[in-house]
Amino acid sequence: MVCPRCVEAVQNLLERAGYRPKAVSLGVAELDETTPADPEALAPLLHAAGFELLRGRAEQLTEQIKATLAEYLEHLRTARSPLTTSAFLTDRFAATYSHLSKVFSRTAHLTIEKYLIRLKIERVKELLSYGELTLNQIADQMRYSSGQHLSNQFRQVTGYSVSEFRRLMLPERMSLDALA
């Protein structure tokens, strides 16, 4: 689950299936103790709605890291002196960055840094599509060292220059759960 609508969809799905969710948040659903969960019955329901049941602790942690990295993007935009990615993650989890990084890389087949870059580029695509900010303003907002650095990274990830993307206004935005 990567957005509030996903949380709501999972909550509704669980309720329709006869479960009593105690709490549903990004990547986690806690059920009332009186309704034992049957993972084998729940998995196809979630899959039909475009979700997956995470069975292992590593998969769960990876999804929590992804959700936290989405929060980190907002932190970058709003914080006067933003934390580093590693400091932000270690503040949120009771684990070292090294451990988080190893689990994430093994499970997502991608480093935290590369996932964060993809996440940032998706946000940049969104901002470009609005047409309200210059490239340098977007670079500042996303904490790139310069518009040129953003431009280079944008081309590496998308295969297009920023100006090509703007001119073609490519609808090639990706959903956040498709980034890894």
Automatic annotation (TrEMBL):
**Keywords attached to this entry:** DNA-binding, Transcription, Transcription regulation
Xref: Pfam families: HTH_18
Q: What GO MF terms are annotated? A: DNA-binding transcription factor activity; sequence-specific DNA binding
- InterPro entries noted in UniProt: Homeodomain-like_sf, HTH_AraC
Q: Where is the HTH araC/xylS-type domain?
A: 63-168
Cited PROSITE patterns:
HTH_ARAC_FAMILY_2 (PS01124)
The protein's name? Helix-turn-helix transcriptional regulator
The source organism is Hymenobacter properus
